[in-house]
Amino acid sequence: LGGESLEGRTGSLSSYDKSLTFVAASRENSISVEVDGLEVHYTQVARADFNHDGYQDIFIRMDWFVKDAFGKGTDWVVLTKLSSVEDPMLLWRN
User: Which of 78, 85, 76, 29 is nearest to 51 (CA)?
Assistant: First the structure.
């Protein structure tokens, strides 16, 4: 969030920030987590080969809000892998 890229990051969200906690899985395609007073709802919107490279990509909507303040927003991202052994990377963000 906030313009941060995925460059140089490896591992899962919880390995990146140890204070991250699971909040809820509301549906089959949605999960909520909290980290340092920021709650983020990740919803899988679609899976498809958006960049036509032969590997399935994932389109995710992230709704976030600061629990003890007035900050909130929505990010839309598409994550891709260039091969089955590559780490995920950001293909598109809005």
Answer: 78
CA distance 68 to 57: 34
**Closest among 82, 81, 75 to 60, alpha carbons compared:** 75
First to last CA, the chain: 11
In whole angstroms, what is the distance from residue 60 CA to residue 26 CA? 15
Q: Which secondary-structure segment (H or E) carries 13? A: helix 13-16
50 contacts 20 by C-beta, under 8 angstroms? no
What pTM was estimated for this model as a whole?
0.75
4-13: pLDDT as tens digits: 555 666 666 6
